[in-house]
Specification:
heterotetramer, A: about 350 residues, alpha/beta, 7-stranded mixed beta sheet, 5-stranded mixed beta sheet, 14 strands, about 35% helix, B: about 425 residues, Rossmann fold, 6-stranded parallel beta sheet, about 10% strand, binds thiamine diphosphate, binds magnesium ion
Chain lengths: ~350, ~425, ~350, ~425
């Protein structure tokens, strides 16, 4: 089965090797810095320590103090400085130690970085990345899914991959893009998910979703960790004769309207699954999109399975209730299929 | 480290004197023209003024070289003019005309020129330019450009968090960056002592262990000499420097504000210290300027501004549909993004870029980077009390996945290979 | 016609007096501070100057330096300090000089203020208010409509009124609420819109929309300045025989699902009009809501008429193109009615 | 204003000495117990340690009165214990148990007690507590409570923007607030000189014109005496004070971190300066503590912690459905929010609260509040070039509206009326 970009979506290309999601991120940065001396990395503890999650392990050794910069605890300074560097044609990658801290630089990102190209013809080629998401009991301040704050900010691009293959290919594409790109790495996947990636250089186009599984009864749209939850639910649904088409959005801004709409025109039903909280989550945007582009094709409501509208609770029992899971997705999808 | 209140007086050439004088006059004339335009409702939005503060914008920016970078604030029209921005651009920005640098998408001094004049556009949020210009400074050093960057901030703006984060980061990086703090005693309607419990705002520098200067912001020679010294020291690698220029905001916050909250006596005192009048007095005393010379400049400004204003007024408003699109750079055809290297790339690429990842703490030796890719990670790998909901068993379709396999540490070799594969 | 709270929605109560939207805000703060000594006002230039928009004119004179505090230019400090005060049972009102600057305190609001009640049982009775919106050529940094950043943040309440009567009644309710409430004041309305308000004390319940105009062919949902645009369009639609039901949401979080759903069950069609940018705007949330609650009642897609997905441009010609207007709403509504 | 490095040594009573000792021992014992729990996978998420920093948490918090307010950070378990939090609460927070203060919704030291112990919960974002505790301090003064507030920050956290905004605001307000800066020389893996270009972080105070102290953070008596003096001065209205306590983080950032980046010699030096060992030496020397007394404390701690730990372990995990709801306060039945007035309300209500809205600038007289409600406003009223799209002519239905009418200035009378109307 071929993805939107033609590349094999299971990433098992000739000479492919199986690596973790974490290693895919590390390799993408390593190879981009190797390829292009304008690529730098800035963040808290990214140098000597190699990053809180070890995603920059070995980068300082190879590229030195000028290209791998340990910063003070100053997210606004990191983002602002990166933007200044980008104005000189450099391509800085900013790491937020946990993506939760990105809101400490919210003004710099949404007012300065995002608006520059439209207002002053000043492109800012930079990447802002970091570990996001829950399921590892990080609690209310280490589990954020901040995507919608940025999907609602014109001028940014937002990526949220689910496989090592996509993570590596999309991060490389993000570094080479001339716009500010937010790249979220779901920490639950870092070491739990492995997959093959080609050893040769490749990128994945930003803005393209991919069909992970084909089906005819309904479409499930998801991304990041919930992608795997959705695939698991799809297995269970299949046992009940419900063939689910599962689409991995991969890029949230811009959305791949074509792939989404085509699938729904085929299945006529759509369930959006995201780990982000419900109200104001991306499921709403997709519901509006499908109303605009495929209303007549809908044989049932566009439904959503999401986390609760609360902060992310700390206790495992509470977090399990807060998060969607395969069973919840299965139930919601089954009801929709029967609608 | 510390606050330096005086510096070696430096001999200026006649030309430098006349330049400083001309730019201050130009700065004021441009703003006077805009007040006329404002009264005629030709200015869109608010109009700010730097009346009485011209010596700062002009004197500091005049100390920079052409290759250096600035980011002006609302009261730094003078800096834009010294950098070489034509008055018409400033008029058109305020009138939101289609021929303005931002084609009407943004206004006032909110425009930049990354390629030629090296100007970064400001935004309204105070302080944001400080980390940005720190980044330009670090980036310029990385590329070997030997540039200095400069921006301005107000007494009020020095209370923003980003002022602190930006200047602290600049200090840790010893960035070639000069920050000019224009202490005009008021932030909108709020007097400085209500915002900052300091006699001298230059003391802000002490929080970062960087040097600072305190100068009379209405004395353009003092401003220029100090700025020049600061710029040279920054360029020489001595790190960022803060300059506090004492001055006064003669008009309201913007045109709408009569500023009745300012005691009359206070305004009167500063009106008597007008930077242009003071400098004129000095120049005539020194025989650097006479009535004829002054007349010449008057006429020059009249003709110039009449022409510039006419051009601006004749420029059309942007067509409505120009509001659409343009939010993203669409690639090379849109912007050719190329770094200007002025040092050997080999210095920053392997093998020469390689170092040992160790901290050396004076007196205590070194400690090495710990863990490696197999090290436990913050949360993600702390043993989970419950079994992950999605234990990702093999899929019928979709990416092949297995769970909790020992992570593999890619050998740099792999990277090199794929690199060769590309060259 | 009676509003959800039973009070006459045109605000012409006995002894009602006609005042501007701006004056309604001023009176609400004045009367709440008069009524309750725990109510304080903090912000930049709110004291001696009376606020950049004069909304706090006369408050310092009457309530003194301890209750009307001119702060440094430090939005995070304003919000943080207000939250600390609220922990002592005080009810601070924080003014953002322009709502655009609220993003400078984004971390304090979304991580500290919003999460306290759920996590630590620490309620924070405080109001964050300021002038928002475009149409007055304020440009890209003085025209923000930041509502969705906060509608997507559990723990906050979000109010965005369109009339002097609602502004006064809802601001009073916000001050008396035990939760952090964001109160957006569309500056285009400040002096352009006048209306009657009762002289006696009254509040309007948070979370209740109001039917501004009844109709049977379609429902227009809107709020703030676009409310007036929508009513203007409804007049024009009526001339073509299209009876539009126009609903003023007033509160965006929590949404008044009942009033929204009931109207759509009656008209079977819905157009959402907002000044906020399109992608990730509240129209999407409403589309999802209607899918969940009224899918079978929909005879046409839930459509949206919004601003463009760009920063707010400065030039009047560009801003006019950027913003929705009565003509655009008329056209979209007519097409939907004919759907 | 300036940095005070020594202060009058103060005689402590025997009881005070023993209290300080006991709390440091308790602090350490509680954390040792949690390390055991962590090794048994009973701790949810990460586990931080204040090993070697106990003298700071204990000594500073011990200087406060019961009515005072604190907001602890991750390494201030000692402050919580001094405030009166039972160890079981700390255990249960880390184990995410249902009987914990947050019932499992939040963890570690993230919990508060607004009503009794006057503890504000921290959040992970560093620095946020500084403006919050400034607000508590200002609010307490407003209510006449004569309280002092205290929080802690690290060397790394002092680079956050909110540190600057918070401390600057506290200084302008002369808030009764004490900020303890624990300089343990590392921020996660980053040495202090890479984050802050200062020898003494107490110099951060110079940016706000407030006093600061520098102390040996491993000497609990010095910590206590300094903190007590700072607290008294803050309570006396002298404004906020910054205390830099020099210390060292003996373990990694959290349990997952072996901290190999720390030079061995450096750790060795500080291990030789263990605050508890040092104090024990002093106490025995002064005959304030002997083997018997020590044994007594050992036993007391063993019994206490065994019981507390057992309670914590027996506490259930929260039921899943407890994740739902509780996001909003639903009103009086949920929380009775009442301010505790300890001054006459008449002082802050009209007529006594009324003042003249003028700024008085030393030497220059006064300026009055300008404009009035008819003053032009920033943008909103700058003449609009195009006609507003929605000129809101009278409606068939909906609120009655007219356009651009002269705004009406409500007389205070109106307000008073409606007020009487309510009473
Ligand atoms: C972060 C932020 N908050 C608030 C404002 C609104 N504002 C614009 S200018 C100004 C006063 C600035 O005073 P100062 O920094 O002293 O500069 P000056 O106007 O005196 O040149 C304020 C409060 C802003 N622009 N940015
Ligand atoms: C705003 C913010 N950015 C990043 C982090 C991640 N982080 C947690 S603790 C820490 C290091 C803190 O160092 P320091 O302030 O010196 O405190 P210490 O751990 O030494 O006690 C970092 C970077 C955070 N908590 N908050
Ligand atoms: Mg000023
Ligand atoms: Mg530290």
């Amino acid at each position: 089965m071929a993805g939107a970009n033609g590349a094999p979506t299971n990433g098992s290309a000739a000479g492919g090797k199986e690596i973790t999601f974490l290693e895919a991120i590390r390799q993408a940065m390593f190879e981009e810095m190797e390829r292009d001396p304008t690529v730098l990395l800035m963040g808290e503890d990214v140098g000597v320590y190699g990053g809180a999650f070890k995603t920059s392990e070995g980068l300082l050794e190879r590229f030195g103090w000028e290209r791998v910069i340990d910063t003070p605890i100053s997210e606004s300074a990191i983002i602002g400085a990166a933007c200044g560097m980008s104005y000189l044609g450099l391509r800085p990658i900013c790491e937020m130690q946990f993506i939760d801290f990105i809101v400490c630089a919210f003004n710099q990102i949404t007012n300065f970085v995002a608006k520059g190209h439209y207002l002053w013809n000043a492109p800012a080629p930079m990447v802002i990345r970091g570990p996001s998401g829950g399921g590892v009991h990080g609690g209310p301040f280490h589990s954020a899914n901040p995507e919608m704050y940025f999907v609602h900010t014109p001028g940014l691009k937002v990526i949220y991959p689910s496989t090592p293959y996509d993570a590596k290919g999309l991060l490389k594409a993000a570094v080479r893009d001339n716009n500010p790109v937010l790249f979220f790495e779901h920490k639950f996947l870092y070491r739990r998910i492995k997959g093959d990636v080609p050893t040769e250089d490749y990128t994945i186009p930003i803005g393209r979703a991919v069909v992970r599984r084909e089906g005819k009864h309904l479409t499930i749209l998801s991304y990041a960790a919930m992608m795997h939850t959705s695939l698991e639910a799809a297995d269970a649904l299949a046992k009940e004769g419900i063939e689910t088409e599962v689409i991995d959005l991969r890029t949230l801004l811009p959305l791949d309207e074509e792939t989404i709409v085509n699938s729904v025109k085929k299945t006529n039903k759509c369930l959006v699954v995201h780990e982000d909280t419900k109200t104001g989550g991306i499921a709403g945007e997709i519901a509006a999109l499908l109303c605009e582009k495929a209303f007549r094709d809908l044989d049932g409501p566009v439904l959503r399975m999401t986390s609760l509208d609360t902060p992310v609770p700390y206790a495992p029992t509470l977090e399990a209730c807060f998060l969607p899971n395969a069973k919840k997705v299965f139930t919601a999808a089954k009801a929709l299929a029967r609608y | 480290m510390g606050t330096i209140t005086k510096q070696m007086p430096r001999e200026l050439t006649r030309q430098q004197h006349l330049d400083l004088y001309y730019y201050m006059r130009l700065n004021r004339a441009v703003e006077e023209t805009m007040v006329k335009l404002f009264r005629q409702n030709k200015i869109v939005g608010g109009l700010y003024s730097s009346l009485g503060q011209e010596a700062i914008s002009v004197g500091t920016c005049y100390a920079l070289e052409k290759k250096d970078w600035i980011a002006p604030m609302i009261r730094n029209i003078g800096a834009l003019l010294v950098k070489g921005v034509p008055p018409r651009d400033i008029f058109m920005q305020h009138m939101a005309k289609y021929d303005s640098p931002t084609k009407g998408r943004d206004g006032t001094s909110h425009f930049g020129d990354l390629d030629n004049l090296h100007i970064v556009s400001p935004i309204s949020m105070l302080g944001d330019l400080i980390p940005v210009m720190t980044g330009v400074a670090i980036g310029g050093r990385y590329l070997g450009q030997k540039i200095v960057t400069m921006t301005w901030i107000g007494d009020g703006g020095s209370s923003t968090g980003v002022f602190h984060e930006g200047l602290n980061f600049a200090a840790t990086q010893k960035a070639p960056f000069v920050l000019v703090l224009e202490n005009n005693l008021w932030a909108y309607s709020t007097p400085v002592r209500r915002q900052v419990p300091l006699e001298n705002l230059a003391d802000r520098a002490k929080a970062y262990g960087i040097d600072s200067y305190i100068i009379d912001g209405n004395n353009v020679m003092a401003v220029y000499n100090t700025a020049r010294e600061a710029v040279e020291r920054a360029r020489a690698g001595q790190g960022p420097i803060l300059i506090e220029a004492k001055t006064f905001r003669r008009l309201g916050h913007a045109q709408h504000d009569p500023a009745e909250y300012v005691p009359k006596e206070m305004r009167a005192r500063w009106e008597a210290r007008d930077p242009i009048a003071l400098y004129e007095k000095f120049l005539t005393g020194e025989r650097l300027l006479d009535a004829a010379g002054k007349k010449e400049i008057d006429d020059k400004l009249d003709t110039l501004l009449a022409a510039e204003r006419e051009f601006a007024e004749n420029s059309p408003m942007p067509p409505p549909e120009f509001a659409e699109g343009g939010v993203y750079c669409t690639g090379d055809e849109c912007h050719q993004i190329r770094a200007k290297w002025e040092r050997a790339i080999a210095e920053v690429t392997p093998p020469r870029s390689s170092v040992k990842a160790v901290w050396t703490v004076p007196g205590f030796g070194s400690g090495k980077g710990s863990g490696g890719a197999d090290a436990p990670i913050h949360f993600g790998d702390t043993s989970v009390v419950d079994k992950p909901a999605n234990n990702g068993r093999p899929r019928k379709a979709g990416a092949k996945m297995t769970v909790k396999g020992a992570p593999k540490k890619a050998k740099p070799a792999a990277a090199s290979t794929s690199r060769k594969g590309r060259r």
